[in-house]
Target: Glucose-1-phosphate adenylyltransferase
Amino acid sequence: MRNVISLVLGGGRGTRLYPLTKYRSKPAVPLAGKYRLIDIPLSNCINSDLNRIYVLTQFLSVSLHRHIRQTYRFDNFRGGFVELLAAQQTGNESTDWYQGTADAVRKNLKYIQQYGTDYVLILAGDQLYRMDYRKMLDTHIKSGADVTIAGIPVSRDDAKSLGIMRLDDTGRVVGFVEKPQTQEDLELVTMPPEKLEALGVKSQGRDCLASMGIYLFNRDTLVDVLEKTDYEDFGREIFPAAIRSRHVQLHAFDDYWEDIGTIKAFYEANLSLASPEPPFSFSDEDEPIYSRARFLPPTLMSQVSVDRSQIADGCRIGAGCTIDNSVVGLRSLIGENVTIKDSVLMGADYYETENELEDHRNCKRPPLGIGCGSVIQGAIIDKNCNIGKNVRIVNDLGLEEKEYDVGVTVVDGIPCVEKGAHIPDGWKLT
Model:
């Protein structure tokens, strides 16, 4: 698979994931207690024997760069790499920031025009799924396509928020409707069950095929399209234009896939992973999800009630705590008699020293972690938060959107405590 280059697009602002993206890029957002979103596409590439990978970055990318640099290293004999391509100013080239996904690739064409590259795989950095890209390459080669796109069956209700494809009997994409809202638009792209089954997927009440935003190009096709147009985005411009002038083939995918582009999607995806039968497993020995090894001690707890939850390494959980349907991230420090329910805790990047703890005591401010007697329910707690005693982060008032000056923002009805926030004893949502 040395003739394939993978490009992971990680340069967007991630505004819909704010405040989780206030201090980091979207692919660097923590996931499932110990991973980051970028680990998903990079692990899929490695498991598919694709080890020539570029990650395109732009906004707030320091933590993403650090994570990739510390995690993904290949041996000297296979020629593999994960390289970061940050927006940069060079001699005679454009000095603009990336204006979109296609523009980001255009500004880095020299990296995909290397000798020996025949195919370019375009991936998003904010999706949760497991895919063998070799199967997609096989579909691409057998169909003789210029471009192959991964598609997943969805219901008509879900189709209204996605890009939906129309196919001919051979699986060639012949039409595309972005977020169809009317019955007339939906009728253009619905497919009978027998046609779906001929593509290798079961209907099960789903009669539309949505774009997953995963594209495989012949290298020369991609270079030609980007050099001859000023299109800035793959989904909105490159893909629809390719349908009209190129052979675009579908690669059907029928497994778990979640686009984690909003606070609500992030919250629900994390909690689903803590269920007794999660829709996505991190424990697949044949196709593991990789992340940085941290060499942390086992989690320490006593007289704690835990149900339907994930608890990562290095945590210390006080007596009398109740943890239900939640994700507890690395190095989480939780005081006694704390209740955590339906919540996502991202943990911490470090343990405080004795001197730091003494400073907190002298200044009467909460140390790193969650103080005794606090209640966290239906919330997201970002990393490195200092939450005092008897704090109540529960949306009792049914708020949809609100921002507080202590680093708490309610988004889609979900209270989010931003990274590094300091919340005093006894604070609650008002």
Notes: The longest strand covers residues 208-218. Residues 300-423 form a domain with the UDP N-Acetylglucosamine Acyltransferase; domain 1 fold (CATH 2.160.10.10). Residues 44 and 405 are 40 Å apart (CA to CA).
